Amino acid sequence: MSAPLPILHRDDHLVAVDKPAGLAVHRGWAPEHDVAMTRVRDALGRHVFPVHRLDRGTSGVLVLALHAEAARVLGRAFAAGAVHKTYLTLVRGIPPERGLIDHALPPGEDRAQERVPARTAFVRREVFGRYALVEVRPLTGRLHQVRRHLKHIACPLIGDVNYGKGEHNRLFRERYQLHRLFLHATSIELPHPADGATLIIESPLPVELTEVLARLRVGT
Fold first, then answer.
1. Structural domains in the chain?
2. 55 an active-site residue?
3. 55, 102, 110, 195: which one is catalytic?
4. Helix H segments across the chain?
5. How sure is the predictor about 156, in pLDDT bands with cuts at 50, 70 and 90?
């Protein structure tokens, strides 16, 4: 039996869990039975409703509604841009101290699709030689937006097999035993579906990522 996911917040309307890297959110995005929704459903003993996307390779805060009305209200909040998500990522390259990437993207994986507006704000937090730790806040919700946008400014994510650089991914696998995408959803801020009050849910950086940063900071 798969291990239950750590619960970051739970009330009568929603639950937030700490999703590990490598686990899909639901079976619509993956062929396997073991997905985050199934684990949360089994742990709570009740149906849950997805309200946002978190890529398989990304870890961190994942919010699920506990009833259909909460799912509808949260869905409207996401569509209206009233939900704010923050990520931490390690990239190859040194971006500016802060900036806004305003670069239209195809809405899906088909590059032939007509591009739609996409914006991502970022702040550079630390520099380690030719690598940088970056805090990212997507202002729109396009597929793989963070990964695509940082590649667009020549700062691909470490561990990204689709949009990253193979030589740097190999270096981090061999030197730091990092076998995942360095992208973590650290927090989400949303209006609560019951009363609209601001709810902030946070997730600590997982140990496999903190260990990489610790070694980078001492230069080993």
1. 7-218 (3.30.2350.10)
2. yes
3. 55
4. 36-44, 68-79, 145-152, 166-176, 207-218
5. very high
Is residue 156 within 8 Å of residue 165, measured between CB atoms?
yes
Q: How many residues does the chain have?
A: 220
For residues 47 and 70, give the distance between their C-alpha atoms in angstroms, rounded to a whole number.
Answer: 13
Which residue, 147, 169, 125, is CA-closest to 53? 147
**Is 124's pLDDT higher than 90?**
yes
* pLDDT tens sequence across 97-115: 999 999 999 876 766 778 9
DSSP state of 20: P
Tokens linked to 168: 């740097």
Q: Is the pLDDT of residue 59 over 80?
A: yes
Give the tokens for residue 10.
């739970």
**Residue 26: what pLDDT?**
82
